[in-house]
Amino acid sequence: MLYEFGYHFHILDIFKGLFFILPFCLYLFASCFDSKKIRLLCIVFAVLLTVFFLVMFYVMPISSYIKIKQNIDTGNIYTVEGEVSNFSTPENAYGGHDSESFTINNVNFCYYGTENYGYSKFMCNGGVVTGNGQKLRITYCENPFTGELVICYIEKSE
């Protein structure tokens, strides 16, 4: 087994927490106003912003992970086996807006290197997908929120 499904902590997760400073600053900003309506409006907006950040950064990813894990446990996953083709990897090691992608038997896989679950390690960072012609067996499923294919397991194929 070259890769097995799991949840991965990324350093970027720490920076997501910085977004929670914005609603707090908005709350402090609200205290500068004499008008109760404006103060109340700022506080309501700060609360809504906090809820939005919680859902986007924590609830949705963890919910996706749980759903994908349930699909794995119930066998609601797909397997493709063959040679890697159309392999494309970014120039730098950190990913960001670049993605690594490849195809096996007309199934296209793409990842950005920052996903918290599923395979997403670039070749230049020691990833197991190294180029065209490599023979692999990949087990995957669909992310319930984005529809993207999530790689659950990677094995060498003969």
Structural description of this entry:
The protein is 34% helix and 24% strand. It has a four-stranded antiparallel sheet, covered by helices on one side. Strands 3-4-5 form a three-stranded antiparallel sheet, with no helix packed on it. The chain has one domain (1-158). Helix 2 (21-30) packs antiparallel against helix 3. The two termini are 13 Å apart. Strand 6 and strand 7 form a beta hairpin. It is built from three helices and seven strands. By secondary structure, it is an alpha+beta fold. The longest helix is centred in the middle third of the chain and has 39 residues, at 36-74. The model has no long low-confidence stretch (mean pLDDT 85).
Brief descriptors of the model:
158 residues, alpha+beta, four-stranded antiparallel beta sheet, elongated
**Assembly category:** single chain
Fraction of residues in H or I helices: 25-40%
The H/E string reads EHHHEEEEEE
The whole-angstrom Rg is 21 Å
How many separate domains?
A: 1
Main beta sheet, described? 4 strands, antiparallel
Structural class: alpha+beta
